[in-house]
Amino acid sequence: MPEPPKLDPSIRSMDDLIASPHPEGRDNEDTEILRKRLVYESRKRGILEMDLILSTFAKDRLPTMSDRELREYDRFLTLPDWTIFYYVTGKAEAPEPWRSSSVLSELLHHSANEGKSVRRMPDLEVKQ
Question: Model confidence over 52-104: pLDDT tens digits?
Fold first, then answer.
């Protein structure tokens, strides 16, 4: 597995991570803009398996996520694709603060697809 990026040692919890400056400078992004950007970023990862897992997760969960959950998911998407793949498929154990992340827990459950549902990329909503 590729080495995940190193976090600042002062970040010990998800609250610390969310409170730290966003690596792409998106700290004050409006919640609805954030939600729309996360839909796009969940669909366009570069690895087809991640596109499928994350886009179906985003379709199911983003509409009801709280602002805090959205920001947690946003930080998760800043990780490299292969790191995300290993974490959401359970092939590697995520380090703290991700290990205690409720969003990662939901992603693990979603990725397991225990109901064996057939998944496809969700259609984009087109506003007239």
Answer: 999 999 999 999 999 999 999 999 999 988 999 999 999 988 888 888 899 99
Q: How many Å apart are CA 78 and CA 1, to the nearest integer?
A: 17
Per domain, the residue ranges of the chain are: 29-112
* Residue with the two structure tokens 């969960």: 61
CATH code for 29-112? 1.10.150.250
Q: Kindly calculate the radius of gyration of the chain based on its CA atoms and give it in whole angstroms.
A: 14
Q: Do 18 and 98 contact (CB within 8 A), yes or no?
A: no
User: What distance separates the 2 farthest-apart alpha carbons in the chain?
Assistant: 48
* Predicted structure pTM score: 0.85
3-state secondary structure the chain: CCCCCCCCCCCCCHHHHHHCCCCCCCCCCCHHHHHHHHHHHHHCCCCHHHHHHHHHHHHHHHHHCCHHHHHHHHHHCCCCHHHHHHHHCCCCCCCCCHHHCHHHHHHHHHHHCCCCCCCCCCCCCCCC
Q: Are 72 and 38 a contacting pair, CB within 8 Å?
A: no
